[in-house]
Each structure stands twice: as C-alpha cells, then as structure tokens.
Amino acid sequence: LPAGGASLRLCSARVAQEGINKPVIDRIIRVDHAGEYGANRIYAGQMAVLGRSSVGPIIQQMWNQEKDHLKKFSELMVAYRVRPTVLLPFWNVAGFVLGAGSALLGRKGAMACTVAVEESISEHYNNQIRTLIEEDPEKYKELLQVIKQFRDDEQEHHDIGLEHDAEATPAYSVLKTAIQLGCKAAIFLSERI
C-alpha cells in the first residue's frame, strides 16, 4: 500500500460511481442500449428486403449511425457497470421482424416504420435529457452530450422518413400508432428487466 494507507486503483474505462444516481443511470443506459440494439435489428430487416432497391443506400446510411450509437452504449455499459436487459434475444427477433415486415410493405412502409420508431426514440431521449438535467447537468455532462447527439440523429432519421413518403403508406396512422405502442412497451420493459 502507498503511504497513508490508500489503496491503488488500476486505470480503466470505468466511470467513478461516487455521487451518481446509480438506479437512474442504470435504467437510462440499459434501455438506450436495448433501443439501439433493436434499431440495428430493424434496419437489418429493412436492408434484407430493400437493400438493393433505390432506398437501400438511405437505409444503410441510417443503419450506420445506429451501429455507432450501439457501439457507444455498449462502451457506456462497461464504463458504468450496467447489465443489459435480459430481453435482448427477444429484441433481436422482434426488431428484425418489424424491419423486414415494414419493408415488405415497400419503401413507404419501411419509412413509416422509421418515422414511428424514431419519433418515439426522440421523445424518449428528450425525457432522459430532462431527467439528467434535473439530477445534475454538470455531473452527467458526457452522458447528456451523447444522448443529445443521438436524439438529433434520430430526429434526422425521422425527417428522412417523412421526406421519403412515409405518410403515403396505406393505413399510415394505424401502422404508426401500433409501432409506437410497441416502442413504449419495449422501453418500459427494457428499463426494468
């Protein structure tokens, strides 16, 4: 032991846990990791169906951003010592099915799915931003920056979906509502399980 009896700590990518609201941070990182994982699976499903179509490069561009988001939340899970949701295997299948299923409706269907999901996620990220600001904006500065940037990316995806005729999908409002109800359920469950 060094002089004064203090213990040595090895340097790591972990964040100091002192003073953070661990239950809040765990819930935020767990659900955001699950959400980005699900988004990756949705875009994988869309690419499986529409990858060689005219909208394929647009879907790929959005998917690439989602891959970056997932990578960052995977890093944050390690840094904050957060366990993933036990529902990842379910989100793996459900996300791909939602992506492929919406893409089977055509490019407009895929874009309607994108609008519905990204609108839900943007709203979810805004709620998290408010929570972290109420907690302590300085203490959670890095996490706030990440969430704000990802929220902006998700909003951009939402807008791309609208620009590519999402609202022209048959029964658009019904499809959008159903997908958003699924998103709300996924968020609720992934925060807790």
Automatic annotation (TrEMBL):
Top-level taxon of the source organism: Eukaryota
UniProt record, GO biological process: determination of adult lifespan; regulation of gene expression; regulation of reactive oxygen species metabolic process; ubiquinone biosynthetic process
Protein name, per record: COQ7 protein
Gene Ontology molecular functions: 3-demethoxyubiquinol 3-hydroxylase activity; metal ion binding
Keywords annotated in UniProt: Iron, Membrane, Metal-binding, Monooxygenase, Oxidoreductase, Ubiquinone biosynthesis
UniProt xrefs under Pfam families: COQ7
InterPro entries: Ferritin-like, Ferritin-like_SF, Ubq_synth_Coq7
Pathways per UniProt: Cofactor biosynthesis; ubiquinone biosynthesis
Source species of the chain: Oreocharis arfaki
Gene Ontology cellular component list: mitochondrial inner membrane; nucleus
Taxonomic lineage from the root: Eukaryota, Metazoa, Chordata, Craniata, Vertebrata
